[in-house]
Amino acid sequence: MIKEFNTQTEVSVGLEALWEALSKDFINIVPKVLPNIVKDVQLIEGDGGVGTIFILHFLADVSLSYQKEKITEFDENSHEIGLQVIEGGYLNQGLSYYKTTFQLSPIGELKTLVNLKTSYDHESDIEERVKPTKTSESTIFFLKRIEKYLQLNGT
């Protein structure tokens, strides 16, 4: 049974800049904002919309070697993107399903509210090891790194 965990965070960059980073520049920006975690990101299939598949290669000292993700939702009008892990990553830690959905809303000219929905399922009793709150904290950390990068490099 798929479970959901919802949270939100505010990011001090404009909606369009954050949307661009998450949707169109994801492959290029991830290694820049997570240089101690992600070695590179490669596009495997697609054009950046629904069905696009990419693979994140992690550095040797990270417990995971790679994670393959697929864009399952992409709506430019509502600024919503869903990324489902389809191989590696959390699926190698006992989860049978893992998806993160980002929905962006403007708060002001230079502030964006990000609603995060983490959907997951597991084959065994691993919830103590891979808690949705912990994975959401990782996603918020990632968003804060994007925020810092965009602030330093122009939004």
Task: Produce the secondary structure layout.
Elements: E1 3-11, H1 15-24, H2 26-33, E2 38-45, E3 53-58, E4 66-75, E5 80-88, E6 95-108, E7 111-122, H3 132-153
Antiparallel strand pairs: 1-7, 2-3, 3-4, 4-5, 5-6, 6-7
Helix pairs in contact: 2-3
* Structural Rg: 15 Å
**Spans where pLDDT lies below 50 across 5 or more residues:** none
Strand order of the largest sheet: 1-7-6-5-4-3-2
Approximate strand percentage: 35-45%
End-to-end Cα distance? 40 Å
Number of DSSP helical runs: 3
What is the number of E strands?
7
**SS-based class:** alpha+beta
Which word captures the global form? Answer: globular
| Proportion in helices | 25-40%
Give the H and E element order: EHHEEEEEEH
Describe the main β-sheet briefly: 7 strands, antiparallel
Overall residue-averaged pLDDT value: 90
Family: Belongs to the BetVI family.
Protein name: Bet v I/Major latex protein domain-containing protein
Pfam family, one: Bet_v_1
InterPro entries: Bet_v_I/MLP (IPR000916), Bet_v_I_allergen (IPR024949), Plant_def-hormone_signal (IPR050279), START-like_dom_sf (IPR023393)
